[in-house]
Design brief:
This protein is an alpha/beta fold. It folds into two domains: about 10-35 and about 325-430, Aspartate Aminotransferase, domain 1; about 55-320, Aspartate Aminotransferase, domain 2, CATH 3.40.640. About 35% of the residues lie in helices and about 15% in strands. It is built from 14 helices and 17 strands. It has helices at about 10-15, 50-65, 85-95, 105-115, 135-145, 150-155, 170-180, 200-210, 260-265, 280-285, 305-320, 325-350, 380-385, 420-430, and strands at about 25-30, 30, 35, 40, 50, 100, 125-130, 155-160, 185-190, 215-220, 240, 255-260, 355, 370-375, 390, 395, 405-410. A hairpin with a 2-residue loop joins strand 2 and strand 3 (about 35). The protein starts with 7 loop residues before the first helix and ends with a helix. The structure holds pyridoxal-5'-phosphate. Pyridoxal-5'-phosphate (PLP) binds near residues 134, 136, 219 and 242.
Length: about 425
Amino acid sequence: MFTFENSPEWAQTRDQQDELASFRNEFFIPQHQGQDTVYLCGNSLGVQPRKTAVYVNEELNDWAKLGVEGHFKKHTGWFAYHELLRESMARLVGGKPHEVVVMNHLTVNLHLMMVSFYRPTADRYKIICEGGAFPSDRYALQSQVEWHGFDAADALVELQPRKGEDILRHEDIIEAIEDCGDSLALVMLGGVHYFTGQVLNMKAITEAAHEVEAYAGFDLAHATGNLKLALHDWNVDFAAWCSYKYLNGGPGTVGGAFINERHTRNPHLPRFAGWWGNDPETRFTMPHRFIPVPTADSWQLSNAPILEMAALRASLELFDRAGMERLARKSLELTAYLQYVVQEVLRVKNKSGAIRIITPFDEQQQGCQLSLQMGEDGKNVFDALTAGGVIADWREPDQEGREGGVIRVAPVPLYNSFYDVWRFGELLKSTL
Ligand SMILES: *Cc1c(COP(=O)(O)O)cnc(C)c1O
């Protein structure tokens, strides 16, 4: 589909033609020995927008000048500050604005979603999730199941790739849902698997879950800001994500959630309540009974972390300017270039065949992350790459059947260049 060359001239020429190339200048790129690192770690922590400090300082200054009056200042009053993020965030995940709220943090939001969408009965109590899930998701799922008095070994149905394979097959996911049938309460999967980078067909999975009258929710930690999402059209019940990975909100910054309007309009759906979920018209009159707003906002508990939200604003503005459509198009080519460059290197440097890409080579099943299964000396290779100025991510060989550990690399279309990818290939070649 694309024609590539593994040369610095080709990469730099391609960058010159890239209409999104200038967005790199909107960020601080971490430095190594006086030059830009090859930063391929946006799947773990996105880099800092130059505007972040400006927005955070605005709020600090207003706090200094106005004190509590800042809640009702013009334009960026803290009382409704989360409104400033709503539309941009809704565009990113393909939700209607009233289905999306920026609040809390990812694991907290997963729990809040399960309070509403995992209400097991003696017959219908199972949750389908991925085997080898991100630890926090696993802990959340396990504690929810046990909190309701079920045994995790029975209630959690953990999907595994077939023997000798690295990724889940779509038909196996659907079959697992059908097999659980009436016993299935919830499907809770990562939209993008954090380890393998595999993208799931969220639309088809949601349909299959609804077919057996279960809910479908997704952890979008590795999907938001990476893929074009359409949560509303896919009829997803709920989703939650963080905004320090592809969304560049800063370490540990505020997360987000999507709740389908079918559910936000149902005041009888149980949820944990707090004053920020109450109708803002009466929020400060402190009524005795909780009156949920009929939007995703009614899952909010506490008043909003303004400094985190100010930081996130800087990044969401860049997403609005770049547009997910254009980003997704560049992502496809940039990731394909990384695949190409890595394969070129492996062709001459991987005689034993120990190293391979486990992320699927398939437009429908991949975002901007590639996971490289390494050989026995994987950690040494990773350390040498780091010493050479690459910032990537190392995963210990903790999964069954994996010997050498995995290096995850993510060329992010908003700030990575084709030249970054070429440099990664060069460093990999010299390291191997
Ligand atoms: C990054 C990540 C988390 C982190 O959860 P926090 O609550 O933000 O600390 C959880 N789950 C997945 C799948 C992740 O990728």
